[in-house]
């Protein structure tokens, strides 16, 4: 079967080498398999004919039967247009062409029945359709009620008449030959369980749907296939990992009990307890943990990390925490040290700016086992950093690290791969975490500590600056502190720095009575630290900064976050920034300042921020706006390269597919049973890869 699907498309009837070359180049379609997997991205509803009188301006494309009454050329030169009066028994509308007039005009005949297809626009009292599709009404066409697939193509291809319609024609030709050769990919027990169409019928219905219902069934089946094998692959990777790597047994809890009894500064939330249990059960399992801990900003991940560390330390292991930036490493160090000091656990910070002497001391104490917790940046990965017994590696803000970097941390223990806890403060939609982190176990802190007042978020236009300043003054008089954040995007760094400086000066003029801190990326680390420290101590009342404060900063007394040029920030960033306030007992505010001119997307971002503080909801909107690949960065985008599944809308199907894959692996971990033979073959095919078709067959 594979050799057929590997046939170059030029051999398809009606296609030929020239067209094939263009399609190869423009769409990356080389073989029959590629072509069949070039699925329509939408369908036009040709199941109904409308009357002119039924038209309204809200309609998308519709088709109407009628006759041409007259045509007229209006204007001259580039402004010229062809206006055609088109009527049925209920009224008249106008068809217009602005280009290709010489080509279309001679073809238009009066006294002939046509079907036109296009989007009606209201123009005065009349409806017009610009550049509609036009077809002579034959008995066949008049009964032709169908869903018209629309394929993506390119301008270059369209110029060569290789438009969506042409691709549709090729698909129909190919399907005739391919139908009997398309292999089933799922065993009967799964087909039955979900009432799936056979694979070959699903492929046909995707390209040539008989009706909506069959189309939906076909899409469900095809999406399931894609997700199912993706999940199977991830789960099998996980299984291999669990078998290959033993985990250090970490199960003593004396330290933990002491900490709980004497030093726990607050009651843990239910979500924190749940997550700690999940981690502890991994520690006790003898298997190596690989767990993603998701928790919104302020949800209390630090204490969870610390408690996990305590369990590890109690069993004689050491703990490393790696953060992506110095500021963040610093913050983690401060946060953990507060707890560590209480119970007498040794902790140190290692970053690029650690002095040689301190560094040497850290290296020694780490090797001797004296030092229990080491927090730092990627400086931790250096060869000279040797642990006596690294048992737990905590990695913060995972998406900034590559898998290879994480692996270097693992190698720091020769006997055991350390347990790995990856923390992220950027909520990830479920579909994304199932795909990108599908081989990890996932823990979610989905509850904020009690007593937090929800942050009030306000959208304010530039022009209302006086009012805004008045509000800030009042808050400062109440004893609060204020962040004012400016964007810093690399391409326009100079301009942004100027914006920041202008902003700083204007704030200094508006608030002459208050000391102000300023922090930006062009400052020396020591100066930054100094300014930051003044703000943390409350010596300065306002902090003017670029996004360097985006992550990690914890100043509970700061209760107002003003974000300038908020339209230039992405949703994830806005959410992170807002998370810097709302950490104390006071009512906190986030003010998004924008100009009047906002793109549709920017408006959606601002409105979303005003509407909700739920990080998962925000992440979902973010994914819908940017697409999953963009959201996760290029590193993971390969895994997100789906042919038909859509992580924006297919969470139900993905969940079912994952459950299904889980159930199969639980019963038959190596896919050895007869009933799973088909699945096993698929998986083996996928390993050979390269061949695109292998992904679905
Ligand atoms: P994040 O998840 O953003 O890292 P942190 O661990 O920094 O959150 O916690 C945010 C703040 O909430 C800290 O000041 C922390 O002491 C406090 N906190 C954490 N858990 C609780 C809790 N269960 N009850 C009350 N306060 C808590
Ligand atoms: Mg944190």
TrEMBL record:
For this protein, the record's PANTHER family field holds: ATP-DEPENDENT DNA HELICASE HOMOLOG RECG, CHLOROPLASTIC (PTHR47964:SF1)
Highest taxon of source: Bacteria
> Where does the Helicase ATP-binding domain lie?
282-445
InterPro entries according to UniProt: ATP-dep_DNA_helicase_RecG, DEAD/DEAH_box_helicase_dom, Helicase_ATP-bd, Helicase_C-like, NA-bd_OB-fold, P-loop_NTPase, RecG/Mfd, RecG_dom3_C
In which family does this protein belong, per the annotation?
Belongs to the helicase family. RecG subfamily.
**Which Gene3D superfamilies does UniProt cross-reference here?**
Nucleic acid-binding proteins (2.40.50.140), P-loop containing nucleotide triphosphate hydrolases (3.40.50.300)
MF GO annotations: 3'-5' DNA helicase activity; ATP binding; ATP hydrolysis activity; DNA binding
Q: What is its EC number?
A: 5.6.2.4
Q: Which residues form the Helicase C-terminal domain?
A: 467-629
What is this protein's function per UniProt? Plays a critical role in recombination and DNA repair. Helps process Holliday junction intermediates to mature products by catalyzing branch migration. Has replication fork regression activity, unwinds stalled or blocked replication forks to make a HJ that can be resolved. Has a DNA unwinding activity characteristic of a DNA helicase with 3'-5' polarity.
Protein name per Swiss-Prot or TrEMBL: ATP-dependent DNA helicase RecG
Cross-referenced SMART domains, in alphabetical order? DEXDc, HELICc
Q: Which UniProt keywords apply?
A: ATP-binding, DNA damage, DNA recombination, DNA repair, DNA-binding, Helicase, Hydrolase, Isomerase, Nucleotide-binding
To which species is this protein native? Marivirga tractuosa (strain ATCC 23168 / DSM 4126 / NBRC 15989 / NCIMB 1408 / VKM B-1430 / H-43) (Microscilla tractuosa)
Q: What class of enzyme is it?
A: isomerase
Alphabetical list of Pfam families matching this protein: DEAD, Helicase_C, RecG_dom3_C, RecG_wedge
Q: Does the keyword Isomerase apply?
A: yes
Which GO BP terms, alphabetically?
A: DNA recombination; DNA repair
């Amino acid at each position: 079967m594979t050799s057929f699907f590997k046939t170059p498309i030029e051999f398809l009837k009606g296609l030929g080498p020239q067209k094939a070359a263009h399609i190869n180049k423009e769409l990356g379609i080389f073989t029959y398999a590629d072509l069949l997997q070039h699925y329509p991205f939408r369908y036009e509803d040709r199941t109904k004919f409308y009357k002119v009188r039924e038209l309204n301006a809200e309609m998308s494309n519709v088709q109407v039967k009628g006759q041409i009454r007259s045509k007229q050329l209006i204007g001259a030169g580039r402004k010229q247009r062809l206006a055609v009066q088109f009527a049925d028994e209920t009224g008249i509308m106008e068809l217009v062409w602005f280009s290709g007039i010489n080509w279309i005009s001679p073809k238009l005949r009066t006294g002939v029945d046509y079907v036109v297809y296009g989007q009606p626009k209201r123009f005065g009292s009349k409806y017009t359709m610009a550049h509609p599709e036009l077809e002579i009404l034959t008995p066949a066409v008049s009964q032709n009620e169908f869903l018209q697939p629309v394929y993506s193509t390119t301008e270059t291809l369209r110029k060569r008449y290789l438009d969506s319609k042409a691709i549709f024609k090729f698909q129909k030709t190919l399907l005739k030959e391919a139908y009997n050769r398309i292999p089933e990919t799922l065993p009967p027990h799964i087909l039955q369980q979900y009432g799936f169409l056979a694979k070959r019928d699903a492929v046909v219905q995707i390209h040539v749907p008989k009706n909506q219902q069959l189309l939906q069934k076909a899409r469900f089946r095809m999406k399931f296939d894609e997700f199912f094998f993706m999940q199977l692959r991830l789960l099998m990777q996980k299984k291999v990992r669990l078998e290959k790597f033993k985990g250090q047994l970490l199960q003593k809890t004396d330290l933990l009990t002491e900490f709980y009894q004497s030093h726990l500064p607050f009651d843990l939330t239910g979500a924190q307890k749940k997550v700690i249990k999940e981690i502890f059960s991994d520690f006790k399992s003898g298997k190596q943990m690989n767990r993603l801990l998701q928790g919104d900003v302020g949800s209390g991940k630090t204490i969870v990390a610390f408690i996990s560390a305590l369990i590890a330390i109690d069993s004689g292991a050491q703990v490393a925490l790696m953060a992506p930036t110095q500021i963040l490493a610093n913050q983690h160090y401060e946060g953990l040290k507060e707890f560590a000091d209480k119970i007498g656990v040794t902790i140190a910070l290692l970053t690029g700016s650690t002095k040689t002497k301190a560094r040497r001391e850290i290296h020694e104490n780490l090797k001797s086992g004296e030092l229990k917790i080491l927090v730092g940046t990627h400086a931790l990965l250096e060869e000279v950093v040797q642990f006596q017994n690294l048992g737990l590696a905590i990695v913060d803000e995972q998406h900034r690290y590559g898998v290879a970097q994480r692996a270097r941390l693992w190698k720091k223990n020769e006997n055991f791969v350390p347990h790995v806890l990856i923390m992220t403060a950027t909520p990830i939609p479920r579909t994304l975490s199932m795909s990108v982190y599908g081989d990890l176990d996932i823990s979610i802190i989905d509850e904020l500590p009690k007593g937090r007042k929800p942050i009030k978020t306000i959208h304010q236009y530039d022009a209302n600056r006086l009012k805004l300043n008045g509000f800030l003054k009042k808050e400062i008089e109440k004893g609060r502190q204020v962040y004012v954040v400016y964007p810093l995007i690399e391409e326009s760094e100079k301009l942004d720095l100027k914006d920041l400086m202008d902003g700083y000066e204007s704030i200094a003029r508006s608030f002459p009575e208050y000391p102000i801190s300023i922090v930006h990326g062009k400052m020396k680390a020591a100066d930054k630290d100094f300014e930051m420290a003044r703000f943390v101590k409350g010596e300065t009342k306002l902090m003017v900064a670029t996004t360097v404060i985006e992550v990690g900063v914890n100043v509970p007394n700061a209760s107002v976050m003003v974000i300038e040029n908020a339209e230039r920030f992405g949703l994830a960033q806005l959410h992170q920034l807002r998370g810097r306030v709302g950490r104390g007992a006071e009512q906190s505010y986030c003010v998004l300042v924008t100009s009047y001119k906002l793109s549709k997307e920017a408006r959606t971002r601002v409105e979303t921020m005003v509407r909700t503080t739920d990080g998962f909801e925000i992440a979902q909107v973010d994914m819908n706006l940017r697409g999953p690949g963009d959201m996760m960065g290029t590193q993971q985008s390969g895994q997100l390269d789906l042919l038909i599944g859509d992580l924006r809308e297919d969470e139900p199907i993905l969940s079912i597919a994952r459950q299904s894959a889980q159930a199969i692996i639980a019963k038959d971990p190596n896919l050895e049973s007869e009933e799973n033979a088909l699945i096993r073959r698929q998986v083996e095919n996928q390993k050979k890869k390269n061949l695109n078709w292998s992904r679905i067959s």
